[in-house]
């Protein structure tokens, strides 16, 4: 693990593996680079793997004020420059991490070979926005415990809690988020409108829907795939925090995709 000060914020990151190809892993909102603990080492057997705590999450500097997807994408570009990774990279992101990965591909198309995303959170439906922002304001005021039961019930389905230690560890880590920073990232999502830029993507894209994801059900993931020219869509028995819940399934799906297209 290492830290870098980039664009006015300190970011924690890890670069592992070796080889000519690089995969950037972008975690979900409320997560951290540890969300890929059971996935990253397997990818690192055949490629370099860059994972990091996004701005406002994990041990990276906490976010205040306004935050946009441009800044999140620029953080990835800065990390690639800092670590000396040139040429095209593949990206894999979960939920909001998926939105960041897709936005990076739109903002820096010359640096992207492929993108794989799980339950990508590319925005909030207008009719849900007011209620979502009201809930976020309550989280900011009352703390993460206010929302943990709903977040786990909808995002970490009981059907996926066979490994109780894994679930308990993720729940505790989720509770450790800074409420104000979490709210800042949430408001970024509420203000995002990616529909137009999705149609501009030209790299290979895989979209994964989780049949047990009650935060972003499969029809929402499939709609994102439908907006991207040539994107593939697959539905797996997993949930919203899929890299944590079903790491073997997610690794195998994304690895097969990247190998097939040579990314």
TrEMBL record:
Residues 20-229 form the Serine aminopeptidase S33 domain. Signal peptide: none annotated. SUPFAM superfamilies: alpha/beta-Hydrolases. This is 3-oxoadipate enol-lactonase. The lineage of its organism: Bacteria, Pseudomonadati, Pseudomonadota, Alphaproteobacteria, Hyphomicrobiales.
